[in-house]
Amino acid sequence: MVIILLGPPGVGKGTQAVRLAEELYAAHVSTGDLLRAARREGTELGQKAQAYMDAGDLVPDELILGLVREHLAGIEPGTAVLFDGFPRTTAQADGLGGVLGELGRRVDGVILFEAPDETLVKRLSGRRSCPDCGAVYNVYYNPPGAEDTCDRCGGSLVHRADDAPDTVTRRLEVYRDQTAPLVAHYDGQAAPLVRVRADRAVDDVYADFREAVEGVR
After folding, report:
1. Which of 4, 67, 77, 202 has the most CB within a 10 Å radius?
2. How many angstroms separate the Cα of 125 from the Cα of each of 140, 164, 212?
3. Identified catalytic residue from 19, 105, 160, 170
4. What are the CA-CA distances from residue 2 to residues 11, 81, 138, 157, 206 (Å)?
5. pLDDT tens, 182-201?
6. Which candidate in 36, 123, 128, 171 is catalytic?
7. What are phi and psi of 140, to 5 degrees?
8. Cα(202)–Cα(212) distance, rounded to whole angstroms?
Protein backbone atom coordinates (compact mmCIF):
# COMPACT_ATOMS: atom_id res chain seq x y z
CA MET A 1 0.00 0.00 0.00
CA VAL A 2 1.28 3.45 -0.98
CA ILE A 3 -0.53 6.52 0.39
CA ILE A 4 0.28 10.13 -0.50
CA LEU A 5 -0.45 12.85 2.06
CA LEU A 6 -1.10 16.26 0.51
CA GLY A 7 -1.66 19.65 2.12
CA PRO A 8 0.06 22.97 2.79
CA PRO A 9 3.03 23.42 5.13
CA GLY A 10 1.97 23.31 8.79
CA VAL A 11 -1.26 21.41 8.19
CA GLY A 12 -0.07 18.47 10.32
CA LYS A 13 0.79 15.83 7.72
CA GLY A 14 3.98 14.86 9.53
CA THR A 15 2.36 14.48 12.95
CA GLN A 16 -0.40 12.28 11.56
CA ALA A 17 1.94 10.25 9.34
CA VAL A 18 4.34 9.42 12.20
CA ARG A 19 1.48 8.21 14.40
CA LEU A 20 -0.05 6.02 11.71
CA ALA A 21 3.31 4.66 10.60
CA GLU A 22 3.99 3.47 14.14
CA GLU A 23 0.60 1.75 14.37
CA LEU A 24 0.81 0.08 10.95
CA TYR A 25 4.59 -0.55 11.01
CA ALA A 26 4.66 1.46 7.79
CA ALA A 27 7.53 3.42 6.25
CA HIS A 28 7.09 7.17 6.77
CA VAL A 29 8.82 8.88 3.86
CA SER A 30 9.34 12.61 4.38
CA THR A 31 11.59 14.09 1.73
CA GLY A 32 12.08 17.13 3.95
CA ASP A 33 13.57 14.92 6.68
CA LEU A 34 15.66 13.03 4.14
CA LEU A 35 17.00 16.26 2.67
CA ARG A 36 17.81 17.74 6.07
CA ALA A 37 19.68 14.56 6.97
CA ALA A 38 21.64 14.78 3.71
CA ARG A 39 22.41 18.43 4.48
CA ARG A 40 23.67 17.62 7.99
CA GLU A 41 25.85 14.83 6.60
CA GLY A 42 27.27 17.18 3.98
CA THR A 43 26.35 15.01 1.00
CA GLU A 44 26.41 16.47 -2.48
CA LEU A 45 22.61 16.36 -2.62
CA GLY A 46 22.32 18.08 0.73
CA GLN A 47 24.60 20.92 -0.29
CA LYS A 48 22.66 21.51 -3.50
CA ALA A 49 19.32 21.45 -1.68
CA GLN A 50 20.29 23.75 1.18
CA ALA A 51 19.84 27.04 -0.64
CA TYR A 52 16.36 26.05 -1.88
CA MET A 53 15.21 24.83 1.55
CA ASP A 54 16.44 27.89 3.45
CA ALA A 55 14.57 30.16 1.04
CA GLY A 56 11.36 28.14 1.34
CA ASP A 57 11.47 27.14 -2.33
CA LEU A 58 10.91 23.71 -3.82
CA VAL A 59 13.97 21.54 -4.38
CA PRO A 60 14.39 20.66 -8.10
CA ASP A 61 12.67 17.48 -9.19
CA GLU A 62 15.78 15.66 -10.33
CA LEU A 63 17.32 15.96 -6.85
CA ILE A 64 14.17 14.82 -5.05
CA LEU A 65 13.39 11.88 -7.32
CA GLY A 66 16.93 10.56 -7.10
CA LEU A 67 16.73 10.60 -3.32
CA VAL A 68 13.30 8.96 -3.29
CA ARG A 69 14.37 6.21 -5.69
CA GLU A 70 17.36 5.35 -3.50
CA HIS A 71 15.30 5.37 -0.32
CA LEU A 72 12.46 3.20 -1.68
CA ALA A 73 14.95 0.62 -2.91
CA GLY A 74 15.89 0.00 0.73
CA ILE A 75 12.31 -0.64 1.92
CA GLU A 76 10.93 -4.17 2.03
CA PRO A 77 8.47 -4.72 -0.87
CA GLY A 78 5.49 -5.60 1.35
CA THR A 79 5.86 -2.59 3.65
CA ALA A 80 3.19 0.11 3.50
CA VAL A 81 4.58 3.52 2.55
CA LEU A 82 3.24 6.92 3.62
CA PHE A 83 4.58 9.80 1.52
CA ASP A 84 4.53 12.94 3.64
CA GLY A 85 4.54 16.10 1.52
CA PHE A 86 5.76 14.43 -1.65
CA PRO A 87 5.14 14.76 -4.52
CA ARG A 88 4.79 18.55 -4.57
CA THR A 89 4.31 19.15 -8.29
CA THR A 90 2.56 17.30 -11.08
CA ALA A 91 5.96 16.64 -12.66
CA GLN A 92 7.09 14.99 -9.43
CA ALA A 93 3.87 12.98 -9.36
CA ASP A 94 4.60 11.65 -12.84
CA GLY A 95 8.19 10.92 -11.81
CA LEU A 96 7.07 9.11 -8.66
CA GLY A 97 4.66 7.01 -10.71
CA GLY A 98 7.58 5.89 -12.82
CA VAL A 99 9.75 5.10 -9.79
CA LEU A 100 6.94 3.11 -8.15
CA GLY A 101 6.33 1.24 -11.39
CA GLU A 102 9.99 0.17 -11.46
CA LEU A 103 9.47 -1.36 -8.00
CA GLY A 104 6.14 -3.02 -8.84
CA ARG A 105 4.12 -0.53 -6.79
CA ARG A 106 1.50 2.15 -7.42
CA VAL A 107 -0.30 4.95 -5.58
CA ASP A 108 -3.27 3.38 -3.76
CA GLY A 109 -4.78 6.49 -2.20
CA VAL A 110 -4.33 10.23 -1.60
CA ILE A 111 -5.27 12.08 1.61
CA LEU A 112 -5.64 15.87 1.41
CA PHE A 113 -5.33 17.76 4.72
CA GLU A 114 -6.89 21.25 4.71
CA ALA A 115 -6.76 24.25 7.11
CA PRO A 116 -7.04 28.07 6.89
CA ASP A 117 -3.87 30.10 6.25
CA GLU A 118 -4.01 31.85 9.64
CA THR A 119 -3.90 28.48 11.39
CA LEU A 120 -0.97 27.36 9.25
CA VAL A 121 1.09 30.50 9.92
CA LYS A 122 0.68 30.13 13.68
CA ARG A 123 1.58 26.47 13.59
CA LEU A 124 4.71 27.04 11.52
CA SER A 125 6.03 30.12 13.27
CA GLY A 126 5.65 28.34 16.61
CA ARG A 127 7.30 25.12 15.46
CA ARG A 128 10.51 23.90 17.08
CA SER A 129 12.28 20.75 15.90
CA CYS A 130 15.01 18.47 17.21
CA PRO A 131 17.86 17.96 14.70
CA ASP A 132 19.02 14.87 16.60
CA CYS A 133 15.91 12.65 16.65
CA GLY A 134 13.47 14.53 14.39
CA ALA A 135 10.83 15.24 17.08
CA VAL A 136 8.65 18.30 16.41
CA TYR A 137 6.99 20.62 18.95
CA ASN A 138 4.98 23.84 18.86
CA VAL A 139 5.25 26.60 21.45
CA TYR A 140 1.49 27.28 21.10
CA TYR A 141 -0.05 23.83 20.75
CA ASN A 142 2.49 21.20 21.86
CA PRO A 143 5.37 22.74 23.84
CA PRO A 144 8.23 20.62 25.19
CA GLY A 145 8.38 19.97 28.94
CA ALA A 146 11.51 22.13 29.23
CA GLU A 147 11.96 25.19 27.03
CA ASP A 148 14.10 24.56 23.92
CA THR A 149 14.84 20.97 25.02
CA CYS A 150 13.60 17.80 23.32
CA ASP A 151 11.50 15.57 25.60
CA ARG A 152 12.50 12.48 23.64
CA CYS A 153 16.29 12.72 23.53
CA GLY A 154 17.29 15.84 25.46
CA GLY A 155 18.69 17.58 22.38
CA SER A 156 18.50 21.33 21.79
CA LEU A 157 15.47 22.41 19.77
CA VAL A 158 15.87 24.77 16.83
CA HIS A 159 13.62 27.22 15.00
CA ARG A 160 14.26 26.33 11.38
CA ALA A 161 15.07 29.12 8.94
CA ASP A 162 12.20 28.00 6.71
CA ASP A 163 9.76 28.52 9.62
CA ALA A 164 10.52 32.25 9.95
CA PRO A 165 7.33 34.34 9.35
CA ASP A 166 8.44 35.82 6.01
CA THR A 167 9.53 32.43 4.74
CA VAL A 168 6.29 30.82 5.93
CA THR A 169 4.30 33.26 3.80
CA ARG A 170 6.51 32.44 0.83
CA ARG A 171 6.06 28.70 1.40
CA LEU A 172 2.28 29.03 1.37
CA GLU A 173 2.47 31.00 -1.88
CA VAL A 174 4.68 28.29 -3.40
CA TYR A 175 2.18 25.65 -2.29
CA ARG A 176 -0.76 27.42 -3.87
CA ASP A 177 1.08 28.05 -7.13
CA GLN A 178 2.85 24.73 -7.63
CA THR A 179 1.47 22.06 -5.31
CA ALA A 180 -2.28 22.67 -5.13
CA PRO A 181 -2.72 21.56 -8.80
CA LEU A 182 -1.87 18.04 -7.56
CA VAL A 183 -5.39 17.86 -6.16
CA ALA A 184 -6.85 18.03 -9.64
CA HIS A 185 -4.12 15.69 -10.93
CA TYR A 186 -4.92 12.90 -8.47
CA ASP A 187 -8.66 13.56 -8.24
CA GLY A 188 -9.11 12.34 -11.77
CA GLN A 189 -7.21 9.08 -11.29
CA ALA A 190 -8.24 5.64 -10.08
CA ALA A 191 -6.70 6.05 -6.61
CA PRO A 192 -9.29 7.62 -4.26
CA LEU A 193 -8.66 11.17 -2.95
CA VAL A 194 -10.10 11.89 0.51
CA ARG A 195 -10.22 15.34 2.16
CA VAL A 196 -9.57 15.69 5.91
CA ARG A 197 -10.23 18.94 7.78
CA ALA A 198 -7.07 19.52 9.83
CA ASP A 199 -7.94 22.62 11.90
CA ARG A 200 -9.31 20.46 14.73
CA ALA A 201 -7.98 18.50 17.70
CA VAL A 202 -5.18 16.13 16.72
CA ASP A 203 -7.11 13.02 17.78
CA ASP A 204 -10.18 14.04 15.76
CA VAL A 205 -8.07 14.59 12.67
CA TYR A 206 -6.32 11.28 13.22
CA ALA A 207 -9.61 9.39 13.50
CA ASP A 208 -10.72 10.64 10.09
CA PHE A 209 -7.26 10.06 8.64
CA ARG A 210 -7.12 6.47 9.89
CA GLU A 211 -10.61 5.78 8.57
CA ALA A 212 -9.60 7.12 5.14
CA VAL A 213 -6.51 4.91 5.01
CA GLU A 214 -8.45 1.84 6.16
CA GLY A 215 -10.81 2.45 3.27
CA VAL A 216 -7.90 2.06 0.87
CA ARG A 217 -6.29 -1.05 2.38
Report:
1. 4
2. 9, 6, 29
3. 160
4. 20, 5, 29, 31, 18
5. 888 888 776 789 999 999 98
6. 171
7. -95, -45
8. 15
